[in-house]
Amino acid sequence: MKEIKIAVIGLGYVGLPLARLFATKYSVVGFDINQIRVEELMSGTDTTLEVSDDLLQSVLKEKNTKEIGLFCTTNKEDIKDCNYFIITVPTPVDKNNRPVLIPLVKASETVGAVLKKDDVVVYESTVYPGATEEECIPVLEKVSGLTFNKDFYAGYSPERINPGDKEHTVEKILKVTSGSTLEIGKEIDDLYKSVILAGTHLAPTIKVAEAAKVIENSQRDINIAFVNELAKIFNLMDINTHDVLEAAGTKWNFLPFKPGLVGGHCIGVDPYYLAQKAQEFGYNPEIILAGRRMNDSMGNYVATEVVKAMIQKDIKIKGANVLILGITFKENCPDVRNTKVVDVVSSLKEYNINVTIFDPWADVEEVEHEYNLKSLKEIPNEKFDGVILTVAHNEFKDIDYNSIKNEKCVIYDVKNILSEKQQDLCL
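User: That's the sequence. What structure does it adopt?
Assistant: Structure tokens below.
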């Protein structure tokens, strides 16, 4: 059996936990183009909070050592002697919601430059069915000069990381695997099976594994869109949506989805990958895109509902001060990728409302860089005409809301974590 040395390309929310896990049994090199990120990790700290400092420090090792452990680098020379390359880079969409494969192509070029005979490249980034073999493999062949399925092999094993979730960590989530040949599929499956406690499922082809991943998040997106539409309907009827869902949830097969802002790196993005591929085949997906339109509309809906409630309370809209609680895309997590809270902010600003953002989890510089917004780590000592709780961080449950609101104030609880006495409206 050949000696295994793994390179993990991309050390973000997906790559780092995976690299750390493999480093408990194998020699692993983590590669990332972000020098600051690499230096941070080699110092034993993960600012994404996906891997604790203790766990990270327990697997770190020095450069060019063959023993098990993790070494992180920005130098592709350090991955030359690896024989498994696992690519975990982002796959976003552009402003028109079209898939952006540039990070995936760049990562493939990096790997192609060091690819050797009998090496295996595994992709984990979410893509549309066919992307690995149609877009990535040609790059590997061109850069390396090697022939696919003769000189090197490939596989696809979709990431299922849930940022901020300390219960469903990477080793506890069943892993779908696949390979470019039956033998390589089994080899890749065995590799993941050696570290994934929850086990693996070997899909028959790479395309099946790609399709399985993209429909997981599309299914969730559609279900959330359904309850978001219900929320809009029930709000018109003056019925509490959460009370309705709680009652309906007493039936054994009712699916427990809740309304909210749908952002993040997966659910708000992946349906567009499937939709574009379907359109290339001449099919216009109706349900998938309808769900996306509904969920993409929720930021403006929340802002409009707050403004209407403020008008009903005779609060002057122009120049009003509104506090936004939370800018990350989900609770108790610093991830701000594709957060839909920014839609709430932009809609409020169209009414000439002054917006203050407070989020103890978000990185202030990242919010500034990504969205040109100022996020605070503490609530300023002032009172507000409106408070919108957009993210259910634990810290928001303990706020003294009476101390931060004006005599006339609207509190809108998007996540319904406050008591009915504390909130004026909820989604």
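The CA atoms of residues 392 and 417 lie 7 Å apart.
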